[in-house]
């Protein structure tokens, strides 16, 4: 949902002697910035999650974690990061107990890009808790991830618990490639408990193709007496 990529790397010492891990870093591809998540702040000081000793005993394994975030110029272009599979390469430097130095640099690492299809619908705002049978507002973001212009129509289909307020069949107009629009919608729930927001349909009138969106998010529905 945020276009962030988390990379977990497991490194194991398969030799018969301890290793001194001098460096384990991730060199990101040109579209990403990287943040290492292998340290903790203790009393204002940054310390390794592996402790003060950086030795890796025989057959021991360490897990390194990195977070990659798209650079601003790429994050603003919807659909660009979606298709990027190359995220960077690991650079590992170590020393043996005899002082011999070794280095391993991986080839470019690939990620499985999530498939959003032609149209991506995400929720920007939604309340955590709402009153039973009382309208509440949500904000949706619709993004054209395809390479063609769409002419969209929004249909709102009621479920057993979720009821949409407003006129279904609303014309949203043309949406160009990599463009987004924000949509304010109102709905209510007739059933208490944790309810799933479902029933949105987007139809591209150019291709006569309909995209269905169910289980978009969940909201906790309580009686007005309980919430007050």
UniProtKB/TrEMBL annotation:
GO cellular component, as recorded: TRAPPIII protein complex
Pfam families (UniProt xref): TRAPPC13_C, TRAPPC13_M
Domain Trafficking protein particle complex subunit 13 middle: 3-114
InterPro entries in alphabetical order: TRAPPC13, TRAPPC13_C, TRAPPC13_M
Domain Trafficking protein particle complex subunit 13 C-terminal: from-to ranges: 127-221
Domain of life: Eukaryota
Protein name: TPC13 protein
Lineage: Eukaryota, Metazoa, Chordata, Craniata, Vertebrata
């Amino acid at each position: 949902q945020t276009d962030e990529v988390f990379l977990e790397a497991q490194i194991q010492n398969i030799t018969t002697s301890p290793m001194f891990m001098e460096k384990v870093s991730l060199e990101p591809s040109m579209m990403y910035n990287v943040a290492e998540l292998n340290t903790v702040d203790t009393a204002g000081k940054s310390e390794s999650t592996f402790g003060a000793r950086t030795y890796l005993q025989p057959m021991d394994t360490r897990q390194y974690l990195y977070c990659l975030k798209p650079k601003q110029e790429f994050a603003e272009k919807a659909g660009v990061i979606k298709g990027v599979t190359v995220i960077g390469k690991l650079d590992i430097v170590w020393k043996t107990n005899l002082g011999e130095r070794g280095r391993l640099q991986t080839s470019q690492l690939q990620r499985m890009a999530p498939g959003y299809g032609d149209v991506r619908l995400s929720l920007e705002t939604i309340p955590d808790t709402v009153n039973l049978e009382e309208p509440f507002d949500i904000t949706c973001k619709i993004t054209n991830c395809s390479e063609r212009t769409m002419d969209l129509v929004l249909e709102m289909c009621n479920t057993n618990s979720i009821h949409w307020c407003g006129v279904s069949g609303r014309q949203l107009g043309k949406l160009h490639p990599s463009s987004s629009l924000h949509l304010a919608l109102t709905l209510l729930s007739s059933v208490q408990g944790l309810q799933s927001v479902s029933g949105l349909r987007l139809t591209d009138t150019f291709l006569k193709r309909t995209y269905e969106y169910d289980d978009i998010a969940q909201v906790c529905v309580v009686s007005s007496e309980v919430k007050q």
